Amino acid sequence: MSGEKKSGRERGEEWWRTGIIEMRPGVIRMRGYEIQDLIGRVSFPAMIWLMLRGELPTEDQAALLGIALGAAVDHGPQAPSIAIARMAATCGVGINNAMASAINVLGDVHGGAGEQALSFYGDIAAAMDGGAGLAEAVSSRLDRFFAGEKGYVPGLGHRFHPVDPRAPRLIELTRAFAARGVVSGRFADIAGAIEAEVATRKGKSIPLNIDGATAVIYGELGFPPPLTRGLFVLSRSVGILAHAWEQSAESDRNKGPLPKEWLWAYTGAPARSFPGDSE
């Protein structure tokens, strides 16, 4: 009966509910599949897809997901997350501590642009579903952005690269997969139209960046925007691990963000005497 008080065991078993994994002694099932049936037959990108989406992807879907994940693994120690991983390693902490320190800074500003880009694309896709043409939907969304939002159009421009070398290749591959019917190509079209319209309005080219390009792929594959950030974290964790491991083999200790002969710019009060001390 529904009103019957449940036993302690029943309450314990129902404390967490999940459709992801079933596990008991001798049994591990992921989304209903025996783990031993998946091992050696399912790639890591396919396993990510299965865990997040509940079903196995096609080989092409898994391949395209792997392409996006592989493209964003690292951007060097100038990237805050990578620098933090290396600095943490010089403090004598373990790999997990260094990785956690780095991953914790992947937020709205550093790591969140892909989610923002896919949300932007999604607004345009929704307008197109409502009957607007591509050019009209893009123009309308950019009008709203420039009228009321701050910052850069998500997914465009890079502070180091005049043209992000990763983005054109990712779009090229996305269109190749679209030509084979793996994805629709809709988000690639949207990103291209945004890039073209912004160039017209600004009078200069502001090319797609890695966040905008991977957002295209994640959108083509049907991932919602919040998962785009999580997928970026998975991707960048590879570089974070590599740098933490490399740095851990070095003899540097307590290495800060700048060489010791380079000090920060002090902008506070000039040197002064403590009140009551003689001049």
UniProtKB/TrEMBL annotation:
InterPro entries: Citrate_synth-like_lrg_a-sub, Citrate_synth-like_sm_a-sub, Citrate_synthase, Citrate_synthase_sf. It comes from the Bacteria. NCBIfam families: PRK06224.1-1 (NF004864). GO terms for cellular component: cytosol. The keyword Transferase applies. Pfam families: Citrate_synt. It comes from Mesorhizobium tamadayense. Gene3D superfamilies: Citrate Synthase, domain 1, Cytochrome P450-Terp, domain 2. SUPFAM superfamilies: Citrate synthase. The lineage of its organism: Bacteria, Pseudomonadati, Pseudomonadota, Alphaproteobacteria, Hyphomicrobiales. Keywords: Lyase, Transferase. This is citrate synthase (unknown stereospecificity). Transmembrane segments: none annotated. Pathway: Carbohydrate metabolism; tricarboxylic acid cycle; isocitrate from oxaloacetate: step 1/2. Belongs to the citrate synthase family. Its EC number is 2.3.3.16. GO terms for molecular function: citrate synthase activity; lyase activity. GO terms for biological process: carbohydrate metabolic process; tricarboxylic acid cycle. It is an enzyme of class 2 (transferase).
